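[step 3/7] inverse_fold.run input=structure_tokens len=342
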């Protein structure tokens, strides 16, 4: 097979990332310039600050990605870029950089959906086998995506309000943990007990949707009430109780989906997929599904990065899904819902 080389761009939120990917599954370079420190003092991502950082970093990241991969523009077959969903100003920097490289070096331009990218981080573990189901849990998204075949993404369930990662970041703030709080809350959650019995919203409803805002409010109210009466609650128990509620609903809905949609692979992807609680719970649940293999996105590729965009890019390249210079950022880009068959 001829070697396929894709230069991939990811700038949808607060990481500027450029990667060189060979044949869709081998990382030659994956440069990630994170802006977390600049956003931390605001407790979340400030869109305008993010755009400015992307502008400063993008050309440096391109150079580093090419150097580290040991390739030049002449070696490339295509340029792939995240064009949504995400922050409009942030996306525009990546889209403009990718268009410029594609135009200057006469390369095809491949438009990639950021969520497809998260799912395709699994390609660096093993080839994706269809049909597949993906649980995508990140700071901005929580959804179950059914893939009957290549380049076919259909939503079967999603959060009605907050994303799981967003809930982690907000309750983390109440515990005095810096943004993004997920990793630290996860660590704390392994040191306490589930004593608070927080709500498992929508757990028993007959759908594949999620809701985390009630859980977040219950958590915040519990802490505030304790503050008012001068009581100090055990932080580890709070974190354990919160994580138990999140993991229960994520796992229960995923199991329900696997029962209705038998698949060859279940892929866990997105920033929150790094969570130890959800990784071990799904590993346990999957023992009952002998025909379904669990593929966990590699820990270092759960967060936003351009390697995962290159992994989708190669597939779209084979399907000749190309954009022209009119490609624009689409901040609210979404997959379609699966149409009911009955
Ligand atoms: O996918 P991502 O890097 O960015 C988005 O596209 O949103 O996800 C970032 C989110 C943050 O909310 C962060 O707190 C969360 O992933 N996160 C975690 C863990 N590591 C990162 N949440 C729970 N447990 C973790 N170990
Ligand atoms: Zn993401």
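[step 3/7] decode complete -> sequence:
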């Amino acid at each position: 097979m001829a070697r396929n080389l894709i230069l991939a761009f990811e700038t949808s939120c607060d990481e500027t990332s450029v990667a060189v990917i060979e044949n869709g599954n081998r990382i030659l370079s994956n440069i990630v310039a994170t802006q977390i420190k600049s956003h931390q003092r605001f407790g979340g991502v400030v869109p305008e600050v993010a755009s400015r950082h992307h502008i400063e970093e993008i050309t440096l990241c391109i150079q580093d990605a090419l150097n580290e991969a040991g390739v030049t523009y002449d070696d490339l077959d295509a340029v792939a870029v995240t064009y949504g969903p995400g922050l409009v100003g942030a996306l525009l920097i990546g889209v403009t950089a990718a268009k410029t490289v594609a135009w200057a070096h006469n390369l095809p331009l491949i438009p990639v959906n950021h969520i497809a990218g998260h799912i395709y981080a699994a390609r660096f573990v093993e080839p994706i086998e269809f049909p597949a189901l993906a649980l995508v849990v990140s700071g901005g998204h929580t959804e179950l995506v059914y893939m009957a075949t290549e380049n076919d993404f259909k939503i079967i369930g999603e959060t009605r309000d907050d994303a799981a990662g967003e809930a982690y970041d907000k309750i983390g703030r109440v515990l005095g943990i810096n943004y993004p709080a997920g990793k630290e809350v996860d660590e704390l959650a392994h040191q306490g007990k589930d004593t608070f019995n927080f709500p498992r919203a929508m757990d028993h409803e007959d759908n594949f949707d999620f809701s985390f805002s009630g859980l977040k409010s219950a958590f915040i109210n519990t802490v505030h009430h304790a503050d008012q009466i001068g009581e100090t609650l055990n932080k580890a128990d709070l974190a354990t109780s919160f994580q138990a509620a999140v993991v229960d609903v994520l796992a229960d809905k995923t199991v329900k989906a696997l029962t209705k949609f038998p698949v060859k692979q279940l892929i866990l992807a997105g920033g929150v997929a790094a969570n130890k609680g959800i990784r071990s719970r799904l590993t346990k649940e999957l023992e009952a599904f002998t025909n379904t293999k669990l593929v966990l996105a590699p820990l270092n590729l759960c967060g936003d990065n351009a390697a995962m965009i290159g992994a989708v890019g190669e597939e779209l390249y084979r399907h000749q899904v190309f954009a022209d210079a009119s490609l624009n950022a689409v901040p609210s880009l979404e997959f379609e819902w699966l149409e009911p068959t009955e």
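[step 4/7] annotate
The pocket of KG4 (ligand 1) is lined by residues 13, 138-140, 165, 168-169, 180-183, 186, 270-272, 274-275, 303-304 (CB under 6 Å).
The chain has a mean pLDDT of 96.
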